[in-house]
Amino acid sequence: MTVLGNLLVMVALCKDRQLRKKKTNYFIVSLAFADLLVALLVMPFAAIELTTGQWRYGETFCLVRTSLDVLLTTASILHLCCIALDRYYAICCQPLVYRNKMTPVRVTLMLGGCWVIPTFISFLPIMQSWNAIGIEDIIEDRKFSNITNETYCVFLVNRPYALICSAVAFYVPLGLMVLAYQRIYVTAMEHARQIGTLQRAGSAPDSYLSHDQQGSSRMKIETKAAKTLAVIMGCFCLCWAPFFITNVVDPFIHYSVPWQMWTAWLWLGYVNSGLNPFLYAFLNRAFRRAFLMILCCGDERYARQGSYVPSRPYSASANGTSIALRLSFIPSRSYSDNGKRILSSELESQDSTGYNTDRLSL
Protein backbone atom coordinates (compact mmCIF):
# COMPACT_ATOMS: atom_id res chain seq x y z
CA MET A 1 0.00 0.00 0.00
CA THR A 2 2.83 2.39 0.85
CA VAL A 3 4.62 1.71 -2.45
CA LEU A 4 1.52 2.05 -4.61
CA GLY A 5 0.17 5.15 -2.86
CA ASN A 6 3.43 7.10 -2.98
CA LEU A 7 4.29 5.93 -6.49
CA LEU A 8 0.91 7.16 -7.71
CA VAL A 9 1.59 10.60 -6.21
CA MET A 10 4.92 10.86 -8.03
CA VAL A 11 3.50 9.70 -11.37
CA ALA A 12 0.64 12.20 -11.03
CA LEU A 13 3.05 15.13 -10.72
CA CYS A 14 5.12 13.94 -13.67
CA LYS A 15 2.09 13.62 -15.95
CA ASP A 16 0.02 16.63 -14.83
CA ARG A 17 1.46 20.01 -15.83
CA GLN A 18 -0.99 21.90 -13.63
CA LEU A 19 0.23 20.10 -10.51
CA ARG A 20 3.80 21.15 -11.24
CA LYS A 21 2.81 24.82 -11.11
CA LYS A 22 2.12 24.75 -7.37
CA LYS A 23 5.02 24.96 -4.97
CA THR A 24 3.37 22.91 -2.23
CA ASN A 25 3.14 19.92 -4.56
CA TYR A 26 6.94 19.70 -4.74
CA PHE A 27 7.02 19.14 -0.99
CA ILE A 28 4.30 16.50 -1.35
CA VAL A 29 6.17 14.65 -4.10
CA SER A 30 9.48 14.79 -2.23
CA LEU A 31 7.61 13.45 0.80
CA ALA A 32 6.21 10.65 -1.37
CA PHE A 33 9.74 9.80 -2.57
CA ALA A 34 11.01 9.57 1.02
CA ASP A 35 8.08 7.37 2.03
CA LEU A 36 8.56 5.22 -1.07
CA LEU A 37 12.19 4.60 -0.08
CA VAL A 38 11.04 3.69 3.43
CA ALA A 39 8.81 1.02 1.89
CA LEU A 40 11.50 -0.27 -0.47
CA LEU A 41 14.70 -0.07 1.59
CA VAL A 42 13.65 -0.23 5.24
CA MET A 43 10.40 -2.14 5.69
CA PRO A 44 11.43 -5.36 3.83
CA PHE A 45 14.51 -5.99 5.99
CA ALA A 46 12.61 -5.10 9.16
CA ALA A 47 9.88 -7.55 8.13
CA ILE A 48 12.41 -10.31 7.38
CA GLU A 49 14.10 -9.85 10.76
CA LEU A 50 10.72 -9.81 12.50
CA THR A 51 9.45 -13.00 10.83
CA THR A 52 12.71 -15.02 10.95
CA GLY A 53 13.76 -13.81 14.40
CA GLN A 54 17.37 -13.14 13.37
CA TRP A 55 19.64 -10.91 11.26
CA ARG A 56 21.50 -12.68 8.44
CA TYR A 57 23.18 -9.83 6.56
CA GLY A 58 26.20 -8.97 8.69
CA GLU A 59 27.10 -6.15 11.04
CA THR A 60 28.04 -3.60 8.36
CA PHE A 61 24.76 -3.90 6.52
CA CYS A 62 22.98 -3.70 9.88
CA LEU A 63 24.54 -0.26 10.37
CA VAL A 64 23.59 0.75 6.81
CA ARG A 65 20.01 -0.43 7.25
CA THR A 66 19.74 1.40 10.57
CA SER A 67 21.18 4.58 9.05
CA LEU A 68 18.71 4.41 6.17
CA ASP A 69 15.89 3.91 8.64
CA VAL A 70 16.80 7.02 10.62
CA LEU A 71 17.56 9.06 7.48
CA LEU A 72 14.34 8.32 5.58
CA THR A 73 11.90 8.46 8.48
CA THR A 74 13.42 11.76 9.65
CA ALA A 75 13.26 13.14 6.09
CA SER A 76 9.60 12.17 5.94
CA ILE A 77 8.85 14.02 9.19
CA LEU A 78 10.78 17.14 8.09
CA HIS A 79 8.76 17.21 4.86
CA LEU A 80 5.56 17.27 6.91
CA CYS A 81 6.95 20.25 8.81
CA CYS A 82 7.79 22.09 5.56
CA ILE A 83 4.30 21.44 4.22
CA ALA A 84 2.82 22.96 7.39
CA LEU A 85 5.03 26.06 7.06
CA ASP A 86 4.18 26.42 3.38
CA ARG A 87 0.46 26.29 4.19
CA TYR A 88 0.94 28.82 6.96
CA TYR A 89 2.50 31.38 4.62
CA ALA A 90 -0.05 30.66 1.87
CA ILE A 91 -3.14 30.91 4.09
CA CYS A 92 -2.20 33.31 6.87
CA CYS A 93 -0.20 35.84 4.83
CA GLN A 94 -0.95 38.09 1.90
CA PRO A 95 0.07 36.92 -1.62
CA LEU A 96 3.07 39.28 -1.78
CA VAL A 97 4.39 37.92 1.52
CA TYR A 98 3.95 34.37 0.29
CA ARG A 99 5.85 35.11 -2.94
CA ASN A 100 8.69 36.66 -0.98
CA LYS A 101 8.85 33.78 1.48
CA MET A 102 8.34 30.87 -0.93
CA THR A 103 10.62 31.71 -3.82
CA PRO A 104 11.92 28.81 -5.97
CA VAL A 105 15.33 29.17 -4.35
CA ARG A 106 13.86 28.95 -0.85
CA VAL A 107 11.73 25.97 -1.79
CA THR A 108 14.85 24.25 -3.13
CA LEU A 109 16.77 25.02 0.06
CA MET A 110 13.95 23.70 2.22
CA LEU A 111 13.77 20.50 0.20
CA GLY A 112 17.55 20.15 0.40
CA GLY A 113 17.42 20.65 4.16
CA CYS A 114 14.83 17.88 4.47
CA TRP A 115 17.41 15.47 3.05
CA VAL A 116 20.72 16.90 4.32
CA ILE A 117 19.78 17.48 7.97
CA PRO A 118 18.83 13.82 8.57
CA THR A 119 22.28 12.68 7.41
CA PHE A 120 23.81 14.42 10.43
CA ILE A 121 21.79 12.26 12.80
CA SER A 122 21.88 9.04 10.75
CA PHE A 123 24.87 7.95 8.65
CA LEU A 124 27.44 10.26 10.26
CA PRO A 125 26.96 9.24 13.94
CA ILE A 126 25.75 5.67 13.37
CA MET A 127 28.56 4.60 11.03
CA GLN A 128 31.03 6.19 13.49
CA SER A 129 29.28 4.42 16.41
CA TRP A 130 28.76 7.69 18.29
CA ASN A 131 25.37 6.44 19.42
CA ALA A 132 27.04 3.48 21.16
CA ILE A 133 29.56 5.42 23.27
CA GLY A 134 29.26 4.23 26.85
CA ILE A 135 26.86 1.35 26.14
CA GLU A 136 29.09 -0.95 24.06
CA ASP A 137 28.73 -3.85 26.51
CA ILE A 138 24.93 -3.72 26.46
CA ILE A 139 24.87 -3.73 22.66
CA GLU A 140 27.31 -6.65 22.40
CA ASP A 141 25.27 -8.69 24.87
CA ARG A 142 22.09 -8.19 22.85
CA LYS A 143 23.63 -8.81 19.43
CA PHE A 144 24.19 -12.52 20.06
CA SER A 145 21.98 -15.06 21.81
CA ASN A 146 23.82 -17.97 23.46
CA ILE A 147 20.56 -19.86 23.85
CA THR A 148 19.39 -19.83 20.21
CA ASN A 149 22.82 -19.15 18.67
CA GLU A 150 21.33 -16.35 16.57
CA THR A 151 22.48 -12.81 15.80
CA TYR A 152 20.35 -9.66 15.82
CA CYS A 153 20.57 -6.17 14.37
CA VAL A 154 20.55 -4.17 17.60
CA PHE A 155 20.23 -0.40 17.63
CA LEU A 156 20.57 1.22 21.03
CA VAL A 157 21.43 4.85 21.67
CA ASN A 158 23.09 6.66 24.54
CA ARG A 159 21.45 9.58 26.29
CA PRO A 160 23.00 12.46 24.30
CA TYR A 161 22.18 10.85 20.96
CA ALA A 162 18.65 9.99 22.09
CA LEU A 163 17.93 13.59 23.11
CA ILE A 164 19.52 15.24 20.05
CA CYS A 165 18.10 12.79 17.52
CA SER A 166 14.59 12.91 18.99
CA ALA A 167 14.61 16.71 19.11
CA VAL A 168 15.72 17.10 15.48
CA ALA A 169 13.57 14.30 14.08
CA PHE A 170 10.36 14.82 16.05
CA TYR A 171 9.98 17.36 18.84
CA VAL A 172 11.12 20.49 16.96
CA PRO A 173 9.10 19.64 13.79
CA LEU A 174 6.12 18.80 16.01
CA GLY A 175 6.30 22.20 17.72
CA LEU A 176 6.49 24.03 14.38
CA MET A 177 3.57 22.02 12.98
CA VAL A 178 1.41 22.73 16.02
CA LEU A 179 2.11 26.47 15.80
CA ALA A 180 1.51 26.59 12.04
CA TYR A 181 -1.73 24.62 12.08
CA GLN A 182 -3.00 26.53 15.10
CA ARG A 183 -2.57 29.79 13.18
CA ILE A 184 -4.19 28.24 10.09
CA TYR A 185 -7.19 27.16 12.13
CA VAL A 186 -7.59 30.61 13.72
CA THR A 187 -7.37 32.20 10.27
CA ALA A 188 -9.98 29.83 8.87
CA MET A 189 -12.37 30.66 11.71
CA GLU A 190 -11.86 34.39 11.19
CA HIS A 191 -12.57 34.08 7.48
CA ALA A 192 -15.68 32.02 8.20
CA ARG A 193 -16.96 34.87 10.36
CA GLN A 194 -16.13 37.33 7.58
CA ILE A 195 -18.23 35.32 5.16
CA GLY A 196 -21.18 35.50 7.53
CA THR A 197 -20.75 39.25 7.89
CA LEU A 198 -20.56 39.79 4.13
CA GLN A 199 -23.63 37.65 3.54
CA ARG A 200 -25.67 39.62 6.05
CA ALA A 201 -24.48 42.94 4.59
CA GLY A 202 -25.26 42.05 0.94
CA SER A 203 -27.56 44.29 -1.07
CA ALA A 204 -29.56 41.31 -2.41
CA PRO A 205 -30.55 39.39 0.70
CA ASP A 206 -32.91 37.07 -1.16
CA SER A 207 -29.97 35.48 -2.97
CA TYR A 208 -28.18 34.62 0.24
CA LEU A 209 -28.90 32.22 3.04
CA SER A 210 -31.15 33.05 5.92
CA HIS A 211 -29.61 33.95 9.26
CA ASP A 212 -30.03 30.41 10.61
CA GLN A 213 -28.66 28.89 7.45
CA GLN A 214 -25.67 31.22 7.60
CA GLY A 215 -24.90 30.09 11.12
CA SER A 216 -25.25 26.46 10.08
CA SER A 217 -22.98 26.92 7.04
CA ARG A 218 -20.39 28.74 9.11
CA MET A 219 -20.48 25.92 11.66
CA LYS A 220 -19.88 23.41 8.87
CA ILE A 221 -16.89 25.42 7.65
CA GLU A 222 -15.41 25.55 11.15
CA THR A 223 -16.11 21.86 11.73
CA LYS A 224 -14.43 20.80 8.48
CA ALA A 225 -11.37 22.92 9.21
CA ALA A 226 -11.10 21.43 12.69
CA LYS A 227 -11.53 17.89 11.39
CA THR A 228 -8.97 18.32 8.61
CA LEU A 229 -6.29 19.66 10.92
CA ALA A 230 -7.19 17.17 13.66
CA VAL A 231 -6.76 14.24 11.26
CA ILE A 232 -3.38 15.51 10.01
CA MET A 233 -1.94 16.19 13.46
CA GLY A 234 -3.68 13.21 15.06
CA CYS A 235 -2.24 10.70 12.60
CA PHE A 236 1.24 12.19 12.86
CA CYS A 237 1.27 12.14 16.67
CA LEU A 238 -0.40 8.74 16.92
CA CYS A 239 2.18 7.17 14.60
CA TRP A 240 5.39 8.74 15.90
CA ALA A 241 4.86 9.99 19.45
CA PRO A 242 5.03 6.50 21.09
CA PHE A 243 8.34 5.72 19.41
CA PHE A 244 10.08 8.99 20.21
CA ILE A 245 8.78 9.10 23.78
CA THR A 246 10.17 5.59 24.29
CA ASN A 247 13.39 6.56 22.52
CA VAL A 248 14.02 9.32 25.06
CA VAL A 249 12.87 7.38 28.13
CA ASP A 250 14.65 4.06 27.46
CA PRO A 251 18.26 5.26 28.08
CA PHE A 252 17.18 6.71 31.43
CA ILE A 253 15.59 3.45 32.64
CA HIS A 254 18.63 1.28 31.80
CA TYR A 255 17.24 0.01 28.47
CA SER A 256 14.50 -2.02 30.08
CA VAL A 257 11.83 -1.44 27.41
CA PRO A 258 10.96 -4.88 25.92
CA TRP A 259 11.82 -5.46 22.28
CA GLN A 260 8.18 -6.27 21.50
CA MET A 261 7.19 -2.72 22.43
CA TRP A 262 10.04 -1.26 20.40
CA THR A 263 8.92 -3.28 17.36
CA ALA A 264 5.30 -2.23 17.74
CA TRP A 265 6.16 1.48 18.02
CA LEU A 266 8.60 1.28 15.09
CA TRP A 267 6.07 -0.32 12.76
CA LEU A 268 3.46 2.20 13.88
CA GLY A 269 5.86 4.88 12.63
CA TYR A 270 6.23 3.02 9.33
CA VAL A 271 2.45 3.10 8.96
CA ASN A 272 2.69 6.90 8.76
CA SER A 273 4.55 6.53 5.45
CA GLY A 274 1.53 4.69 4.08
CA LEU A 275 -0.94 7.25 5.41
CA ASN A 276 0.86 10.34 4.08
CA PRO A 277 -0.31 9.93 0.44
CA PHE A 278 -3.92 9.82 1.64
CA LEU A 279 -3.55 12.78 4.02
CA TYR A 280 -1.56 15.11 1.76
CA ALA A 281 -2.44 14.09 -1.80
CA PHE A 282 -5.62 12.02 -1.98
CA LEU A 283 -7.53 14.77 -0.12
CA ASN A 284 -6.45 17.28 -2.78
CA ARG A 285 -9.00 17.72 -5.57
CA ALA A 286 -6.33 18.37 -8.23
CA PHE A 287 -4.40 15.23 -7.26
CA ARG A 288 -7.59 13.16 -7.23
CA ARG A 289 -8.38 14.30 -10.77
CA ALA A 290 -4.85 13.35 -11.85
CA PHE A 291 -5.19 9.94 -10.17
CA LEU A 292 -8.42 9.27 -12.03
CA MET A 293 -6.76 10.23 -15.30
CA ILE A 294 -3.92 7.78 -14.61
CA LEU A 295 -6.07 4.91 -13.38
CA CYS A 296 -8.64 5.40 -16.15
CA CYS A 297 -5.95 5.54 -18.85
CA GLY A 298 -6.52 9.17 -19.75
CA ASP A 299 -10.31 9.10 -20.00
CA GLU A 300 -11.33 12.58 -21.21
CA ARG A 301 -14.22 12.71 -18.76
CA TYR A 302 -11.68 13.50 -16.07
CA ALA A 303 -9.76 16.11 -18.06
CA ARG A 304 -9.17 19.40 -16.34
CA GLN A 305 -11.97 21.85 -17.10
CA GLY A 306 -9.83 25.02 -17.03
CA SER A 307 -10.16 27.69 -14.39
CA TYR A 308 -12.62 27.42 -11.56
CA VAL A 309 -15.71 29.61 -11.92
CA PRO A 310 -18.07 29.71 -8.95
CA SER A 311 -21.73 29.20 -9.73
CA ARG A 312 -22.86 31.68 -7.11
CA PRO A 313 -21.29 34.06 -4.64
CA TYR A 314 -20.43 32.67 -1.23
CA SER A 315 -21.60 29.09 -1.62
CA ALA A 316 -20.34 27.90 1.73
CA SER A 317 -20.99 24.25 0.97
CA ALA A 318 -19.04 24.23 -2.29
CA ASN A 319 -15.67 23.44 -0.76
CA GLY A 320 -15.87 23.69 2.99
CA THR A 321 -13.04 25.60 4.54
CA SER A 322 -11.38 26.51 1.25
CA ILE A 323 -13.93 29.25 0.53
CA ALA A 324 -13.20 30.89 3.85
CA LEU A 325 -9.50 30.65 3.21
CA ARG A 326 -9.75 32.28 -0.23
CA LEU A 327 -10.87 35.49 1.46
CA SER A 328 -7.38 35.85 2.89
CA PHE A 329 -6.23 37.08 -0.52
CA ILE A 330 -8.99 39.69 -1.04
CA PRO A 331 -7.54 43.23 -1.02
CA SER A 332 -9.07 45.81 1.30
CA ARG A 333 -11.90 47.44 -0.65
CA SER A 334 -15.59 48.17 -0.28
CA TYR A 335 -18.03 45.29 -0.60
CA SER A 336 -20.61 46.12 -3.24
CA ASP A 337 -22.37 44.89 -6.37
CA ASN A 338 -23.64 41.80 -4.60
CA GLY A 339 -20.14 40.58 -3.99
CA LYS A 340 -19.10 40.58 -7.65
CA ARG A 341 -16.16 42.90 -7.04
CA ILE A 342 -15.03 40.68 -4.17
CA LEU A 343 -15.15 37.52 -6.24
CA SER A 344 -13.35 39.22 -9.12
CA SER A 345 -10.48 40.44 -6.96
CA GLU A 346 -10.42 37.11 -5.19
CA LEU A 347 -9.99 35.14 -8.40
CA GLU A 348 -7.32 37.53 -9.66
CA SER A 349 -5.34 37.12 -6.45
CA GLN A 350 -5.93 33.39 -6.49
CA ASP A 351 -4.51 33.17 -10.02
CA SER A 352 -1.48 35.27 -9.03
CA THR A 353 -0.58 32.97 -6.16
CA GLY A 354 -1.05 29.76 -8.12
CA TYR A 355 -3.18 28.22 -5.37
CA ASN A 356 -6.41 26.36 -5.99
CA THR A 357 -9.33 25.93 -3.66
CA ASP A 358 -7.81 22.98 -1.83
CA ARG A 359 -5.18 24.89 0.11
CA LEU A 360 -6.25 23.60 3.50
CA SER A 361 -7.39 20.08 2.63
CA LEU A 362 -4.26 19.09 0.74
From TrEMBL:
Family, per entry: Belongs to the G-protein coupled receptor 1 family.
GO cellular component annotations of the record: endosome membrane; plasma membrane; synapse
Matches recorded under Pfam families: 7tm_1
Membrane protein topology class: Multi-pass membrane protein
GO molecular function terms noted in the UniProt entry: G protein-coupled serotonin receptor activity
Keyword set includes Transmembrane helix: yes
Primary residence: membrane
Keyword entries, A-Z: Cell membrane, Disulfide bond, Endosome, G-protein coupled receptor, Glycoprotein, Membrane, Receptor, Transducer, Transmembrane, Transmembrane helix
Compartments where located: Cell membrane; Endosome membrane
Known function: G-protein coupled receptor for 5-hydroxytryptamine (serotonin), a biogenic hormone that functions as a neurotransmitter, a hormone and a mitogen. Ligand binding causes a conformation change that triggers signaling via guanine nucleotide-binding proteins (G proteins) and modulates the activity of downstream effectors. HTR4 is coupled to G(s) G alpha proteins and mediates activation of adenylate cyclase activity.
Native species: Denticeps clupeoides
Quaternary organization: Interacts (via C-terminus 330-346 AA) with GRK5; this interaction is promoted by 5-HT (serotonin).
Keyword Membrane appears in the UniProt entry: yes
Residues passing through the membrane, by range: 26-48, 68-86, 107-127, 161-181, 228-245, 265-283
Gene Ontology process terms (BP): adenylate cyclase-activating adrenergic receptor signaling pathway; chemical synaptic transmission; positive regulation of MAPK cascade; regulation of appetite; system process
Name of the protein in question: 5-hydroxytryptamine receptor 4
Top-level taxon in the UniProt lineage: Eukaryota
Lineage, top ranks: Eukaryota, Metazoa, Chordata, Craniata, Vertebrata
CDD domains assigned to the protein according to its UniProt record, in alphabetical order: 7tmA_5-HT4
Domain (G-protein coupled receptors family 1 profile) ranges: 5-280
